[in-house]
Amino acid sequence: GALETDSRQSLELIELIATPEEMHELRETSPVMRKEAWNRFWKRRDPTPGTPENEFREEFFARVRHADEQFSVLGPGWRSDRGRVYIQFGPPDQVESRPMNLDAPAYEIWTYLGEGRRFVFVDYDGFGRYELYQPGRL
Description:
Layout: H1 2-5, H2 7-14, H3 20-28, H4 31-44, H5 55-71, H6 81-89, E1 94-98, E2 107-112, E3 117-122, E4 131-132
Antiparallel strand pairs: 1-2, 2-3, 3-4
Helix pairs in contact: 5-6
């Protein structure tokens, strides 16, 4: 798809999962060698290197597509806070949603039990553009 071919956008996406060294390599590679560098990047993450498909890469782009379908509000879903977390960590184990009320904006809490992580997203402006909670912002 378009995301795989537009290299500026691809670099921005890849930054969600790449190491600083890999980002440097992908940015500095000459256009002629770039395809080779991309192939190396995905190969390093292939859980089954002996097979033609790279499940990691397929899962990554499936998550990107899901983020765009679910979280595109005033911009592409993969650039949103929820989209970025989804791409990095996959579907949360638990989602707790609270609608807006007089005292507080709407929010969502995503819990990843395996990683022991929790993300709180707040709809600060009421447009459904949930952003990672920042203490002191409310």
